[in-house]
Amino acid sequence: MLVKIGKLSIVMIFIGLSLFIGYKSFYIVGKKIFPLKEEYIIREMSNKYEVDPYLISGIIYTESKFNKYAISNKGAKGYMQLMDTTAIWGQDEIKLDNFDIEKVYEAKYNIEIGTWYISKLIKQFGSVDVALASYNAGSGNVSKWLENVRYSTDKKTLKNIPFEETKNYVDKVKKIKEVYKILYKDYF
Q1: Which residues of the chain have pLDDT under 70?
Q2: Which residues contact 12 (CB under 8 A, 6 or more apart)?
Q3: Separation in Å, CA 85 to CA 71, 105, 115, 172, 173
Q4: Stated pTM of the model
């Protein structure tokens, strides 16, 4: 009988084995599974927009696995999987110089706009979890959920997320953030 185990469960089993074998193995293999690229840009943008750099790393890994050329089936692009409309709106809001839509694949532009956007959502909703749900499902959906007693009893937090993909996304980003905190504790 085969047991289906999710990727994160496999990683956690591996981490446990690596700890048993030794810390050096844990870090070597862990960093291969969970790479970190563009850490200087992540650090700079996290400081600029006051967002945890490990959260940004978790979002990037979850969205694109640090593939700057990633394109979703809905057309989201780059490290932080920005839709064209979000990228254009973001660059207008933060006044990026020399931006055109093709620059959405460049780390500096993509990570800056994505970090600005998650920062804006955290401020808007007052919660990282709700901001992550909004980053995935859209702020319009999340605003409706907050008004519905089936999903929120206080209009500030979500006790239930109706989109399974979004629920899984929020959980995954939070778990991956913690993995990045362990693996790259001295980077930020």
Answers
A1: 1-24
A2: none
A3: 15, 14, 16, 25, 23
A4: 0.88
